[in-house]
Structure formats: C-alpha cells, structure tokens
Amino acid sequence: MHDIYCFREDKKEFGKNLKNLMEAKKMTVEKLADKVGYGVNTINKWRSGERIPSLDTMKTLATIFKTTIQKLYLPNSYYKKELSPEFIDFINEKLEIGQTDYHLLLELVDYNRYLAQKMMFSLLSPKEKRDYKSIFRYYILTPYGVEKLNLKEMTFEEFHNNFRAYIKQQYGASLPYKIRLEDSMMLINELNKIIKIKYVKAYVML
C-alpha cells in the first residue's frame, strides 16, 4: 500500500516457527495433519517453508498451539515509522486530540491506515488492538457508513465485526491472508467513505 506498510510473507520463518511449536508440544506431523485435515505432505511443505497455509488454517494452528497469528506468522510485520513521544501519550490517552498540533494528526492518519489494513485480516496484535481502541474514540460514521455497516452508534467491537463482515462480503467466505495492492487500496478508500476521524471541527481521511 505505502512504504510504511510492511506485510512480508516469510515462508521459511513460518516453517521454523511451526517446527519449534511442534517440537515443544511433542506433536508429530501425522498428528497435526489429522488435527487440521491436511495430508502429511502438505504439513511437511509448511515445515520446510515451501508453502504457507491460508489465514483460516493459520487461525486453527494458532489455536492448536495456544499462540497468536502475530507470533506464528507476522513477527516480521511491523510499522516502519517511529512513534513520537507526543503520539504515544495520545495513544495512552494522556493527551486529547484537541491539545495536539497538525503534525500529530498526520501521524495519527498514517498509523491508523496501518492498523486498518491489519484489521482487515483480523491480525491486530493485542497492543495494536488497544491502540486502535484508543483512536476509535475519535471515529464518526458517515451517512454512507451507516448504510454500509448497518450501524448508527457503535462500539469498537461492533465496528470491527461489521467491517470484517463487509470485507468478507467483497471477497467471499474466506478472506485470503494477503490481497493485491490495488484491492488493498480500494478497501482503504472504501473505509475512508465509511469512517472519519474528527479533529476539532474538521473531518480527516483515514
């Protein structure tokens, strides 16, 4: 999407993580194959870094090994910019948006785009989810958003669930773990029509 978004597919790293988890749990390839409903050959390809499973299967694996998708697959997905101390105070709710300058607003827009992309795949880490909830207090639905998400007033969970349902509507029942740049941009543009961030009397695009 932009040079601040780094979602890197690393099959080798995933394979190494999977092998380590299987060894720690003393789980054989055959037993894991039975649990996830795939053949032994497929499991071996995951372990060797030759292939990577779908997002739905990744969620199943995370449940089996009592871990998160973030640790299993996305330790190499990160936000490239360093957050400013002022913005960290804002995220920690020590600072109100009206007390900040325009530079923090621009930082908010960039970081929010990154979080929005991860939300599309339900891949927010616990910390990122907390950050997103903090930003969420400044969200307002547009009339277009009310219609698309079937919401008027919303909690963070309602917004997250309804937006995810809307995305699945566009892609079918099983959202892929990655999408093309053009599609990702299209979804961000759509999100801009659904939600705005309120800054004093101005409306700012996500």
Structure overview:
Residues 1-6 have low confidence and may be disordered. A hairpin with a 2-residue loop joins strand 4 and strand 5. This protein is elongated. The protein has 206 residues and is mainly alpha-helical. The chain contains 11 helices and 5 strands, in the order βαααααβαααβαααββ. The protein has helices at residues 11-24, 29-36, 40-48, 55-64, 69-72, 85-91, 102-120, 126-136, 143-149, 156-171, 181-194, and strands at residues 5-6, 78-79, 139-141, 195-199, 202-204.
Could you outline the blueprint of secondary structure elements for this entry?
Layout: E1 5-6, H1 11-24, H2 29-36, H3 40-48, H4 55-64, H5 69-72, E2 78-79, H6 85-91, H7 102-120, H8 126-136, E3 139-141, H9 143-149, H10 156-171, H11 181-194, E4 195-199, E5 202-204
Antiparallel strand pairs: 1-2, 3-4, 4-5
